[in-house]
Amino acid sequence: MFKVIAMSADGEKKGRSPMEQAKANFTLYYTLTQELLKFIDKNDVDEFLEIEQQRGDLVERMKALPETEEYRQTAECQELVQKIKPLDMQVIYKAKAWLNRSRQQNATVHAYDIRGANTLGNILSKGCSNNSFIL
């Protein structure tokens, strides 16, 4: 299982200034977004959801760090944001497409669900379970 240990909002304990931590958080967000695309392309939904959870936790830490907004105003961050935006759009598009496929597959399965809709199927199932009905 892929797991990124996200950095805390309290970068001082790790020898980072708050501004360095803000930069590291944006870089990690970019990396996690790239990983999301890899796992959704592999159809690995469990890993995708795990990384999405990590990314959500990271966003919460970014919001808790006041320097995040200060770093966001830098040219360096703006350049990184321009790389992140199209990736985010791809993640959203692919996740929606996956969800639609899943819904269609689920609807197809339910369309073939014969419980209650076909009494012959119920009779055959009952007959086979008590060995009193042999084909």
Structure in words:
The chain has 135 residues and is mainly α. It has one domain (11-129). The chain is built from five helices and no strands. It has helices spanning 18-41, 45-64, 67-72, 75-111, 119-129. Helix 1 runs antiparallel to helix 2 and helix 1 (18-41) packs parallel to helix 4 (75-111). Mean pLDDT is 80; it is low at 4-12.
Offer a quick outline of the entry.
This protein is an all-alpha fold.
Q: Count of DSSP helices? A: 5
Query: What is the C-alpha radius of gyration, as a whole number of Å?
Result: 24 Å
Strand content range = under 5%
Assembly of the depicted chains: single chain
Task: Assign an overall shape.
Answer: elongated
Helix content: over 70%
* Count of structural domains: 1
Q: State the end-to-end CA separation.
A: 48 Å
Briefly note the structural class of the backbone. mainly alpha
Quick one: biggest sheet?
none
H/E element sequence: HHHHH
Average of per-residue pLDDT values: 80
Number of strand segments: 0
Low-pLDDT windows of residues: 4-12
